């Protein structure tokens, strides 16, 4: 999937969320409010064909003030908005709410209210290889981080859902849970995209099988010790294996999409600008998002590159076969 970054006029849910802010005026011409829109986008999960979520409300918490609660409605008059996150990957996004006036300032928390099976409605679910599985959201609320609405012209924010880390199936396989781990809020004016091709000869390097386990991981910074690059894990959960001291966790990870030809494609969207190291591995098929699995990254060992991502720019980095 070779997706290009395109600025959007809505908050995107990596699932992404976009806020567009334009200042209102008080009697002294100092803006006190802003117009805000929300949208959703995601980074894909491996084993699902659809991840459908019914959004009921958006709640904004601000210190010293009452929470702001905004109702969400569907395209056909429903009192919720049902969105398949997997239909909005990379830089694509779905509008969740538009043209809302908010006070300028820092909001401590954004809370997405989600309808699940406990409400009696079968409107949030995952379609995987076993069929339709309910998506359960504890307390029907997904609590995210803070963001700031300012008077500095038009502002766009994205809530990026990395479903590979935030979507977790329970041990019995009877339902999925959506967790805040792997969900971030970014300002679209400070984000970029990264995409590229991966030579298919890397897919079966060493003991790897060519049709599974091909992923690209993104790490913060340059001059990283490759022995410290680890796979996805949730620091709030007990680890199966002990992390190396000084471990560097990935910012994101995506599967390499292969259809035909000599190359597969990967793409990251809504990544904050900065210095990163991007690494390919052919052995990530068993990456449990909650546990450190000691996966070899990069694999082959020389398949990593340092990149610099610039605000609102598309960057490209390919992975090529090892040359003799």
Q: How many angstroms does the end-to-end distance come to?
A: 29 Å
The whole-number mean of residue pLDDT values reads 83
Let me know the number of strands: 24
Structural class: mainly beta
The major β-sheet equals: 9 strands, mixed
Poorly predicted regions are 1-27
Strand content: 35-45%
What percentage of residues falls in helices of 4 or more residues? under 10%
Silhouette: globular
What is the succession of H and E elements? EEEEEEEEEEEEEEHEEEEEEEEEE
Radius of gyration: 20 Å
Question: Quick recap of the structure?
Answer:
By secondary structure, the protein is mainly beta. The chain is 1% helix and 42% strand. It has one helix at residues 163-166, and strands at 11-12, 17-18, 33-43, 48-61, 68-71, 81-84, 94-103, 105-107, 109-115, 125-128, 131-136, 141-143, 147-149, 157-162, 167-169, 176-178, 183-187, 191-199, 215-220, 252-255, 263-272, 274-281, 304-309, 314-316.
What can you see in these coordinates?
- 1% of the residues lie in helices and 42% in strands.
- The chain is globular, with a radius of gyration of 20 Å.
- It has 1 helix and 24 strands.
- It has one helix at residues 163-166; strands spanning 11-12, 17-18, 33-43, 48-61, 68-71, 81-84, 94-103, 105-107, 109-115, 125-128, 131-136, 141-143, 147-149, 157-162, 167-169, 176-178, 183-187, 191-199, 215-220, 252-255, 263-272, 274-281, 304-309, 314-316.
- The strands form 6 sheets. Strands 4, 5, 6, 9, 10, 11, 12, 15 and 16 form a 9-stranded mixed sheet that branches. A 4-stranded mixed sheet has the order 7-3-14-17. A 4-stranded antiparallel sheet has the order 20-19-22-23, with no helix packed on it.
- It is mainly beta and 324 residues long.
């Amino acid at each position: 999937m070779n997706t290009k970054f395109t600025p959007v006029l809505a908050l995107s849910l990596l699932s992404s969320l976009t806020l567009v802010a334009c200042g209102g005026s008080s009697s002294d011409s100092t803006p006190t409010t802003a117009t805000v829109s929300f949208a959703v986008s995601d980074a894909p999960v491996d084993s699902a064909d659809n991840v459908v979520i019914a959004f009921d409300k958006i709640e904004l918490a601000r210190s010293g003030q009452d929470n702001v609660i905004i109702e969400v409605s569907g395209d056909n008059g429903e009192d919720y908005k049902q969105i398949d996150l997997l239909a909005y990957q990379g830089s694509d996004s779905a509008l969740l709410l538009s043209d809302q006036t908010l006070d300028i300032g820092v909001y401590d928390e954004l809370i997405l209210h989600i309808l699940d099976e406990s409400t009696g409605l079968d409107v949030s679910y995952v379609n995987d290889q076993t069929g339709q599985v309910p998506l359960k959201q504890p307390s029907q609320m997904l609590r995210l981080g803070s963001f700031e609405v300012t008077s500095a012209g038009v502002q766009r924010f994205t809530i990026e859902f990395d479903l590979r880390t935030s979507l977790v199936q329970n041990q019995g396989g009877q339902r999925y849970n959506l967790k805040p781990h792997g969900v971030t809020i970014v300002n679209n004016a400070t984000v970029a995209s990264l995409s590229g091709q991966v030579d298919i000869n890397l897919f079966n390097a060493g003991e790897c099988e060519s049709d599974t386990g091909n992923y690209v991981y993104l790490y913060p910074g340059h001059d990283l010790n490759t022995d410290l690059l680890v796979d996805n894990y949730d620091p709030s959960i007990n680890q199966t294996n002990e992390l190396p001291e000084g471990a560097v966790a990935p910012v994101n990870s995506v599967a390499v999409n292969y259809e035909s030809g000599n190359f597969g494609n990967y793409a990251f969207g809504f990544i904050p600008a900065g210095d990163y190291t991007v690494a390919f591995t052919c052995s990530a098929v068993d990456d449990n998002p909650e546990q450190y699995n000691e996966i070899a990254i990069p694999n082959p060992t020389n398949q990593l590159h340092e990149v610099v991502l610039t605000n609102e720019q598309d960057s490209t980095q390919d992975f090529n076969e090892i040359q003799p």
